[in-house]
Every structure is written in C-alpha cells, then in structure tokens.
C-alpha cells in the first residue's frame, strides 16, 4: 500500500507517484500520534465474513439475498417491514424495534421514511474482480491504487485503475467512462479482457474474471 501511482500501463511509463495510506516518511510521527495502528486494507469480500461470524456468535441473524420491499406499519414500539427473498420471490413480514437505512444514497428504506438525500450522482463505473499474477509489475514499485492513463482507450473505459485485493495476484480493476452522463454501457467479456490487457501493457498475462458489476459514484448524503 506504499503509493498511489499514475502510469501509461503497468508495464509502461510511470507519470508519477505519491506516498499514501500512512507511508510518507516525513509524516511518520504524525501518523503514529494520530493512531496506534498502522494502515491496513481488508476488502469487503475478506472483512465481511469476519464481521458476520462475530456478529452471529453474539446472537445476530443475517438474511442474505433478501431485499426490503416496504414499511407496512409503525406502532409506538415496533415497525413491520415486508421483505422479499430474491431467489424464490417469496415475501414475508418482519417485526422489529428499528429500521435502519444503511443501504446507500438510492435507498428504498430512506424513500419509505421520506428522508431526503442531498447531492448528485456523479457517474457510473464498472468493477472487474480478477485473478492475475501481476507480481513482476508491482513488486518492484508497490502501490494500492495504480491509475492507468493512456489515449488508446475505449470511451466506456477512458480511465482505469488496479486496486489490490491480495498482493500481487488478485485485484479489482475499476473502469470509468469518458462521459459523465450516467449512460449504461454493456461491454462484453472479450471487451473487458482486451481492456485489462491494455491496462497491464502485456497481452500474454493470463486473466481470470471472477465477477464484474456496475456501481454508481454518488456525492450524496442524508442531512438528518
């Protein structure tokens, strides 16, 4: 996690790099004064199972692949909520003391409660979770975010980066379109692989795509 870097490709010219994530040598005392812990990075896919296991041990219950449908009723001491199992489509009701809208700026929970969200949607992006051995590119110049900036790019992925999941063989590649108009783009797996190889700068590197998913970059917040 030593640096954030800007490159033509992982195998190509480096335009610049900055110390990041608590690694700048002349700020070492300030980092240690601010926190007794060193910076660490645990992606959600690694951290979430740890949190879930410990929460279950404390008595919590989790229902994955289940979505909020609507808030049905509120009494003085409980809320009744309708939820849906995504796989089966079955709906059922849950009674609870609290309903928490911790599901982002486009939250159906916040909508159901009439809580306004201020701000704007900035853009859409595509994340591609990959397995690829990039040790020879990154081990000599370690970094957590490696931005790829080159002119020979498709419009749906004008800027990209490699965000480390595990050094140096598992990554999330983030791909950002040229136009900030929120337009939906649907690259094929072949398009994605071609773009990944272009970002690496070596078309011989084996790449396994584990998943790909679109997400929304929001500059939004609920004020109250």
Automatic annotation (TrEMBL):
Organism per entry: Oleoguttula mirabilis
Upper taxonomic lineage: Eukaryota, Fungi, Dikarya, Ascomycota, Pezizomycotina
Pfam family, one: FAD_binding_3
Protein name: FAD-binding domain-containing protein
Domain FAD-binding per the UniProt entry, residue ranges: 26-223
GO molecular function, one term: FAD binding
InterPro entries membership: FAD-bd (IPR002938), FAD/NAD-bd_sf (IPR036188), RIFMO-like (IPR050641)
Alphabetical UniProt keywords: FAD, Flavoprotein, Oxidoreductase
